[in-house]
């Protein structure tokens, strides 16, 4: 069984490399050593470190919700909003696929916790966050497989009776699984992912839709009802205008990070024109042939990759897909994950409220 989800946290001081040589580095975030190991000690500005602190689960309600961990393959973290007594309605499910360029981050971090706890209450929904594998130890498509496996776990939990064994061989009969089984309507699952997790929204949704088309019973009763890529990491090998002209204003997203993370995460020898990062490009299957649920795509006006995000939206429309676009005016990449800016800067707080309201509205209509 995989370790409990809340145990990981970045270290403040660099660990010794024991004479090993650094062969590649993403400033602040990770160093690849000559023996193939990876050091993810945080070496950037210390003021960013609190956003990466893990939040432990709690079964007693806080701020209108509870938080539970479901160890397994993959690990899941579950936010359940408090419901009115006697309200037997099942909740839609938000499956969260975290960002981090496929190479870093963890769903227990404060930056994710504050947003998804708030989203669980606002919709209301059962929010299930997935602990994804990390590159370069596990390159794509490992992350896609983990997203699909998380949906399989949800289906298994929904179908299993108490003390029955789930399809992946793990016992999903604990109290957290029972609470999720009782609360969740798996016929209304919405994939929500930030940055590289936005890529996974597209890739996982397409994978599941293809399997369901081939065998209608393979996923029932689970249904992916919609997808919400937030500032997805869709790029091309050639720089876009926004990449060339927009100035990075955060240690959490720079062009150097974008380039190096994707070089570490994509299959060996692939460029950013690969379908994993450019689903609207010539190397990808025509979007007309890709089965997708309705999409709500959030694009930050000041994002380095704004132009390729908008290109993806245009390509979906041209392919006849159902897509809505929310422009986060005046905001940068993943702005809403910075809890301190959300709490203290009125503009960031307002744009975050608009994003949550848009997701709530999208879910209510699908």
Write a structural description.
There is one protein chain. A nine-stranded mixed β-sheet has the order 4-5-6-8-7-9-10-11-12, with helices on both faces. It has a three-stranded antiparallel β-sheet with strand order 1-2-3. The radius of gyration is 20 Å and the shape is globular. Helix 2 crosses helix 3 and helix 2 packs across helix 4. Helix 4 links the parallel strand 9 and strand 10. 31% of the residues lie in helices and 19% in strands. The two termini are 35 Å apart. The protein folds into two domains: 33 residues, no CATH class; 310 residues, Rossmann fold (3-Layer(aba) Sandwich). By secondary structure, the chain is of the alpha/beta class.
Measured on Cα atoms, how large is the radius of gyration?
20 Å
How many helix segments?
A: 9
State the strand order across the main sheet. 4-5-6-8-7-9-10-11-12
Distance between the termini: 35 Å
Q: CATH homologous superfamily of the largest domain - what is it?
A: Alpha/Beta hydrolase fold, catalytic domain
Mean pLDDT: 92
Instruction: Count structural domains.
Output: 2
Count the strands?
12
Helix content: 25-40%
Shape: globular
Order of helices and strands: EEEEEEEHEHHEHEHHEHEHH
GO molecular function: hydrolase activity
Pfam families: Abhydrolase_3
Domain Alpha/beta hydrolase fold-3: 94-336
Protein name: Putative carboxylesterase 17
